[in-house]
Amino acid sequence: MLKDYYEILGVHQTASLDEIKDAYKKLAKAFHPDKHQGDAFFSEKFKSLQEAYAVFTDPVKKQEYDAQWAEFQKSSKKRKGTKQNRTARPENKTERDTTPSSYSAADLPSLVDIYLEKKDKTLQVRKQYDALLASPKKKVVSWVKVAIAVAIIVLNFLLLNPYFGLLK
Predict the structure, then answer these.
(1) Which InterPro entries is this protein grouped with (predicted)?
(2) How far is residue 30 CA from its own chain's centroid?
(3) pLDDT higher for 22 or 1?
(4) Which of 27-36, 83-92, 123-132, 154-163 is predicted least confidently?
(5) DSSP state of 100
(6) Which of 46, 66, 64, 58 is nearest to 4 (CA)?
(7) Among the residues of the chain, which ranges form H helices?
(8) Gap between the Cα atoms of 111 and 68, Å rounded
(9) Listed residue (108, 83, 81, 113) closest to 24, CA to CA
(10) Dihedral of alpha carbons 46, 52, 53, 54, sign
Protein backbone atom coordinates (compact mmCIF):
# COMPACT_ATOMS: atom_id res chain seq x y z
CA MET A 1 0.00 0.00 0.00
CA LEU A 2 1.24 3.46 -0.89
CA LYS A 3 2.00 5.82 1.99
CA ASP A 4 0.31 9.20 1.99
CA TYR A 5 3.32 11.49 2.26
CA TYR A 6 1.10 14.56 2.07
CA GLU A 7 -0.72 13.47 5.19
CA ILE A 8 2.53 12.51 6.93
CA LEU A 9 3.90 16.02 6.40
CA GLY A 10 0.51 17.65 6.91
CA VAL A 11 0.56 19.59 3.66
CA HIS A 12 -1.81 19.88 0.72
CA GLN A 13 -0.93 18.38 -2.68
CA THR A 14 -0.51 21.87 -4.12
CA ALA A 15 1.97 22.93 -1.41
CA SER A 16 5.12 24.70 -2.51
CA LEU A 17 8.62 23.50 -1.68
CA ASP A 18 8.94 26.17 1.03
CA GLU A 19 5.73 25.00 2.69
CA ILE A 20 6.98 21.41 2.56
CA LYS A 21 10.31 22.42 4.10
CA ASP A 22 8.60 24.38 6.88
CA ALA A 23 6.26 21.50 7.67
CA TYR A 24 9.16 19.04 7.67
CA LYS A 25 11.25 21.20 10.02
CA LYS A 26 8.37 21.63 12.43
CA LEU A 27 7.47 17.94 12.49
CA ALA A 28 11.10 16.76 12.57
CA LYS A 29 11.69 18.91 15.63
CA ALA A 30 8.63 17.48 17.36
CA PHE A 31 9.27 13.83 16.46
CA HIS A 32 13.06 13.70 16.64
CA PRO A 33 14.16 10.43 18.30
CA ASP A 34 16.82 12.17 20.40
CA LYS A 35 14.07 14.21 22.03
CA HIS A 36 12.11 11.04 22.88
CA GLN A 37 14.74 8.46 23.66
CA GLY A 38 13.60 4.87 23.79
CA ASP A 39 10.21 5.42 22.14
CA ALA A 40 9.87 3.42 18.91
CA PHE A 41 6.81 5.41 17.76
CA PHE A 42 8.80 8.62 17.44
CA SER A 43 11.70 6.96 15.62
CA GLU A 44 9.32 5.35 13.09
CA LYS A 45 7.45 8.62 12.61
CA PHE A 46 10.75 10.46 12.09
CA LYS A 47 11.83 7.88 9.49
CA SER A 48 8.59 8.32 7.57
CA LEU A 49 9.02 12.12 7.72
CA GLN A 50 12.51 11.82 6.26
CA GLU A 51 11.25 9.49 3.57
CA ALA A 52 8.45 11.88 2.59
CA TYR A 53 10.81 14.86 2.61
CA ALA A 54 13.31 13.02 0.41
CA VAL A 55 10.58 12.28 -2.14
CA PHE A 56 9.18 15.82 -2.18
CA THR A 57 12.53 17.61 -2.46
CA ASP A 58 13.56 15.63 -5.55
CA PRO A 59 11.43 16.78 -8.52
CA VAL A 60 11.72 13.47 -10.39
CA LYS A 61 10.72 11.39 -7.37
CA LYS A 62 7.86 13.81 -6.64
CA GLN A 63 6.47 13.41 -10.19
CA GLU A 64 6.68 9.64 -9.94
CA TYR A 65 5.01 9.68 -6.52
CA ASP A 66 2.23 12.00 -7.72
CA ALA A 67 1.55 9.68 -10.67
CA GLN A 68 1.46 6.63 -8.37
CA TRP A 69 -0.72 8.50 -5.88
CA ALA A 70 -3.21 9.45 -8.61
CA GLU A 71 -3.44 5.79 -9.71
CA PHE A 72 -3.88 4.70 -6.10
CA GLN A 73 -6.67 7.25 -5.59
CA LYS A 74 -8.47 6.07 -8.73
CA SER A 75 -8.28 2.42 -7.70
CA SER A 76 -9.46 3.19 -4.17
CA LYS A 77 -12.42 5.18 -5.56
CA LYS A 78 -13.36 2.22 -7.74
CA ARG A 79 -13.30 -0.07 -4.71
CA LYS A 80 -15.39 2.37 -2.68
CA GLY A 81 -17.83 2.73 -5.58
CA THR A 82 -18.49 -1.00 -5.72
CA LYS A 83 -19.07 -1.11 -1.95
CA GLN A 84 -21.52 1.77 -2.16
CA ASN A 85 -23.50 0.03 -4.90
CA ARG A 86 -23.84 -3.07 -2.76
CA THR A 87 -24.99 -1.21 0.34
CA ALA A 88 -27.12 1.33 -1.58
CA ARG A 89 -26.15 4.29 0.56
CA PRO A 90 -27.50 7.70 -0.42
CA GLU A 91 -25.00 10.01 -2.11
CA ASN A 92 -26.16 13.24 -0.51
CA LYS A 93 -23.59 14.39 2.03
CA THR A 94 -24.51 15.79 5.37
CA GLU A 95 -22.89 18.84 6.92
CA ARG A 96 -20.81 16.58 9.14
CA ASP A 97 -19.18 14.93 6.11
CA THR A 98 -18.02 18.23 4.62
CA THR A 99 -16.61 19.83 7.77
CA PRO A 100 -12.92 19.25 8.38
CA SER A 101 -11.71 17.67 11.58
CA SER A 102 -10.82 20.02 14.40
CA TYR A 103 -7.14 19.04 14.29
CA SER A 104 -4.94 18.36 11.31
CA ALA A 105 -1.53 16.77 11.03
CA ALA A 106 0.01 20.25 11.04
CA ASP A 107 -1.32 20.78 14.59
CA LEU A 108 0.30 17.59 15.82
CA PRO A 109 3.61 19.09 17.01
CA SER A 110 1.82 21.60 19.19
CA LEU A 111 -0.36 18.83 20.64
CA VAL A 112 2.71 16.70 21.31
CA ASP A 113 4.42 19.64 22.99
CA ILE A 114 1.36 20.26 25.18
CA TYR A 115 1.28 16.61 26.17
CA LEU A 116 4.99 16.56 27.01
CA GLU A 117 4.73 19.79 29.04
CA LYS A 118 1.88 18.33 31.08
CA LYS A 119 3.85 15.11 31.51
CA ASP A 120 6.88 17.09 32.76
CA LYS A 121 4.73 19.08 35.21
CA THR A 122 3.14 15.87 36.47
CA LEU A 123 6.56 14.32 37.02
CA GLN A 124 7.77 17.42 38.88
CA VAL A 125 4.74 17.44 41.17
CA ARG A 126 5.11 13.72 41.77
CA LYS A 127 8.79 14.16 42.71
CA GLN A 128 7.85 16.95 45.13
CA TYR A 129 5.13 14.79 46.65
CA ASP A 130 7.48 11.82 47.00
CA ALA A 131 10.08 14.08 48.62
CA LEU A 132 7.44 15.36 51.00
CA LEU A 133 6.45 11.84 51.96
CA ALA A 134 10.04 10.66 52.30
CA SER A 135 11.70 13.48 54.20
CA PRO A 136 9.36 14.80 56.94
CA LYS A 137 8.97 11.49 58.78
CA LYS A 138 11.67 12.42 61.30
CA LYS A 139 10.16 15.87 61.76
CA VAL A 140 6.68 14.42 62.26
CA VAL A 141 7.97 11.96 64.82
CA SER A 142 9.74 14.74 66.75
CA TRP A 143 6.60 16.93 66.66
CA VAL A 144 4.51 14.04 67.91
CA LYS A 145 6.95 13.56 70.79
CA VAL A 146 6.73 17.28 71.65
CA ALA A 147 2.92 17.19 71.49
CA ILE A 148 2.78 14.16 73.81
CA ALA A 149 5.18 15.81 76.25
CA VAL A 150 3.08 19.01 76.31
CA ALA A 151 -0.10 16.98 76.85
CA ILE A 152 1.49 15.12 79.79
CA ILE A 153 2.64 18.40 81.34
CA VAL A 154 -0.81 19.96 80.95
CA LEU A 155 -2.56 16.89 82.41
CA ASN A 156 -0.13 16.78 85.32
CA PHE A 157 -0.73 20.46 85.94
CA LEU A 158 -4.49 20.03 85.83
CA LEU A 159 -4.53 16.92 87.97
CA LEU A 160 -2.05 18.02 90.61
CA ASN A 161 -2.96 21.71 90.87
CA PRO A 162 -5.13 22.29 93.95
CA TYR A 163 -6.93 25.24 92.37
CA PHE A 164 -8.60 23.11 89.72
CA GLY A 165 -9.64 20.57 92.26
CA LEU A 166 -9.53 17.56 90.07
CA LEU A 167 -7.53 15.60 92.64
CA LYS A 168 -8.48 16.32 96.25
Answers:
(1) Apopto_cytoskel_mod (IPR051938), DnaJ_domain (IPR001623), J_dom_sf (IPR036869)
(2) 11
(3) 22
(4) 83-92
(5) P
(6) 66
(7) 5-9, 17-31, 40-57, 59-87, 95-98, 108-134, 137-160
(8) 32
(9) 108
(10) positive
58, amino acid identity: D
Query: Can you tell me the distance from the alpha carbon of 33 to that of 47, in angstroms, rounded to the nearest whole number?
Result: 9
Q: Name every residue whose Cβ is closer than 8 Å to that of residue 72 and which is 6 or more positions away in sequence.
A: 2
- What one-character-per-residue DSSP string does 137-148 give? HHHHHHHHHHHH
Lowest mean pLDDT among 23-27, 99-103, 127-131: 99-103
Half-sphere exposure of 30 (CA within 13 A, CB side): 22
Closest alpha carbon to 12 in 66, 64, 58: 66
Q: What is the Cα–Cα distance from 42 to 33, expressed in whole angstroms?
A: 6
Kindly report, residue by residue over 109-160, the tens digit of the pLDDT. Answer: 677 777 778 888 888 887 777 776 665 455 556 778 888 999 988 888 777 7
Cα 28 to Cα 20: distance, rounded to the nearest angstrom: 12
